[in-house]
# Entry
Amino acid sequence: MRYIDYKTLLPRSVAGLLVAPFLIFPLFSTNLATLSMFILSGIWAIAVMGFTLILRTGQFSLGQAAFMTIGGYTSAILTVQLGWPFWPSFLLAGVVSGIIALIIGSVVLRVGGVYFSIITLALGEVVRIIAMQWEPVTRGSRGLGTAPPDPISLGGFEINFAASAVPYYYFMILLVAITGLVFWQIGRSRLGGTFFSIAANPILAEHQGIHLMKYRVIAFTVAGVFTGFAGSYYAHFLSTMTPYMVGLWESIQIMIMSIVGGISSLVGGPLAGALVLYALGIYLSRLPVYGIQQLLFGAVVVLVLLFLPKGTGLVDLWDKFWRKVFREPDFYEIPSEEPSQE
Amino acid sequence: MKKWYSIATIIVITVMMLGIAAAPRPAHAVEPIVIKVGYTTAMSGPAAAWGQTERLFFESFVEVFNKKGFKVGDQTYNFKMVVVDNKNSPEGGAAAAKQLVYGDKVKFIIGLWTWNFPSIAAVTNPAKVILMTRTGNEAVPGIYDPKKMPYVVFGNPSEEEFISDCLALVEAFPKYKKLGILECTLGKGPGWDYVLAALDKAGVRYHMEFFPPGTQDFTPYITRYAEAGCDIVFVAGWVGEAMAFAKQRWEMGYKDMKVGHTGPLITPLAYIGVCGKEAAQGLIAEYCAPWDFKKTKVKSKYIKMCREAMKMASEKQGRPYTYTGGIGWFPSHLLILAQAMEKAGTVDDTDAIMEAIRGGTFSTTAGTWTMSGAKTYGSPVVFGTPGALSTIKGDKEVYLAEYPMEPLP
Amino acid sequence: MPPAGIWIDGLIQSCIYMTMAFGMVLVFSILGILNWTHGQFYMLGAFVVYYAFTAVGIPFPIAMLISGVVVGGLGILVEKFIIERVNVPSAQGALYVTVATMALIFFFEGAASMLFGMQEKGLAMVFPGVLDLGSFSVSYQKIAVVAFTLVIMIAMYIMLNRTKVGLAIRAAAQEPDAAGLYGISVKRISLLVMGIGCALAAMAGSIMAPVYAVNPFIGRIPMIMSLLAIIIGGLGSLTGAIVGGIILGFVNSVVAYRLSYFSEVVLFAFVIIILLVRPQGLFGDPLK
# Structure
């Protein structure tokens, strides 16, 4: 009998089964609220992926919200003030965000640890204040009202963003898929390995000739580009861009989503974290009692941190589950006496 | 004997027939049709206290209104409110509008709080949903475009509200030296250019300051106002901040500086609790109770409806409901809508209803007005409420002054 | 030259930021963690004092002590059941603690919103009245704040430098292992220090409650400000916390007077520059 590598096949098929419903979801329900929830979770997932990438190099950036704001404002300004169509603005939003990340990163990444986190936090606020004060361009506190992307004609079939949220949904899936692919490839490549070594032991890495700053800046820039995309999409989905939409507290939420999702994985972790926590947040915000959303959000995060084994996130539960199924020893367990059954 | 029986029978039958004839005919038992009206306001976040207080009154008013309903042709109609939280932010407003228009499929949306007008209007206009907005910092020429947004009715735009409040203040204190205006940076925008230009035209002397959101410490601002010579400081709607300002100015020794804010008093006791009884005396706010108006005439039937709704709200919340804030707009918007539908003869055709609103005269809880404002916004649908002010005396709210609403130049 | 009112205001701000920063640095020195929930303990302290005073009628100074004890106790519980469990001895540990304390920010804000409502609550009736000093006046509440800070700082100084407990704390902060060898239960000291740090925050919130208003969101700004104060003063340094608090309070007040809402930008820019040029702040240890 031919050998079927069921240990790889089974988890992947189950993963596929879990992902597939998302692809065909709009066929069953075009409930705006649910679609919005998924779309927004996807957007945040991208931002969280950026955070996790930076985390891979050993830095906590509490300023990712700044790049979402920059990306959002870039595309909003281009479409609203200059009349550009959506798609070029969207791409440019990512580029501008990346360039700014490059500049800022080169200056700020020299400082490490807690100080870096606080600088990024401060930067997030500075970006917000700039957005608020630069009235002629950003219209200050009132923000910019963005329009949906123009309809795209494919043959005889038109994708109309203005009519419903379904096109947004599919574009979000596309965006998440592309981002995920890019990040996954980075994770598997030598580049990713270098990131990890910088985080694990910077001194050793330096001794081995790895130029720390260069890689940290690369990670920061890549994260900046994709977070900029996320921000631009966010602004256009919500039809508005204001300085208060993505700020300090959102940066904190990004960090929380990343840790809870699991930092061992660049793609799955952020997706899990964003989906679970954001969806949870949305469900809770429907409850009429104000405050319960925040309370339960905080409680859930703390509980997850308490009860997950040390150093893991939600995504690692997946691995553990499959190990249990195949009765393989866990990394943290001492293998039992009996050999595992095949 | 048989003769008596037949006479008795005839009499009984006659009486029965008369009785049946006199009995009220069973009414056509036509159930009133319910029209859904979307209502969006801040249901969460720090402004939620207001949103929830007002909601209580509005739901009671809708109940009172539905007792008689209104008729278009032969059919009676009732309103039903569909409430969605807009989180007091532009993106929340857009989300709320999308939910109402595409999810709940309403054709009319009433009620905004502050700055989510553009994002909500961007959703409602393409869908031909009539938006009756309470305020809109964006309702200024150059930003609001009646051609792009034909389905908007401005009821009580915040610029007009502020201007008429200031004019009422000047009427109440004709010997004032200078009016200090305080606004949060969140509200900065071209709306203020418009307001300040109108104040200039009316000859009002003022000095304006902005504070960042979350400020609790107003010492620097109080100092600056004192240096500028302001003896009245009017805050643009930020109640908590106005309370803090009033308290701190008292403590700093500026006891003659009057303090007020746009928007109605929540309840005098709240202010006394935060500022202290002395500092809270003389605090000025908007006053929307039509039964106290001196210069604006409101039909008594509407006054009765409001009073009944307030009683209902008191019963629902278990303690006296004194907040008069929402009377001037939501009930009046609802009444405008009902009257416009009656005039247009339809409850579905939003184009026809908008036609009926334009230039029409409506009698509501805020008086009797003709919709006009051609010069104000370039749109002939501007409404408003009189700038009526109240002040805290002891622990009660009393009427102070009134500036009747006129289409401003 | 800004008028007297501005300087007094700066003084008040300095006092509060000083107290908060002090508490934060205490916790940081022993536990090695930055407690992001510090601001929420400020807020909770204000609420405890509000209810103790208005609902139960306890005289204000005692209510303040009660709030210190209650919230300090809460801090100890948080430390014991959450932070310790989450703090694995690796780089990950610091990360998890940070996330946990950040999550707790939301938790406490939500809980406060639900339990106490979001409406502003006032304590204006506590120490009412003003002291007239000629061209300006100071409210007794503000005088109370300054008095409170003096008392607390003196108490802290005495405790840390003159008592056995203080000695134990300082030992555990500098050399936990050596301290352990001398019979000091570092674990118990950590809990105690957490309690003290949180109690400081709570009492700062209590003494400020009459000055401003009380609502579930008042913890945010003090948290950020005490963080900035620590940065300016240097992360591990108690003196730094005090000096940082003073600098921050006065700078904030004077800049706000001159530039009104631009004070936000100035403060953040100032902190960024410090972090770039001298990250260890004024009194902290230089990093490698």
Observations:
- The first strand of chain C starts at residue 130 and ends at 133.
- Chain C is about 75% helix and 5% strand.
- The mean pLDDT of chain C is 85.
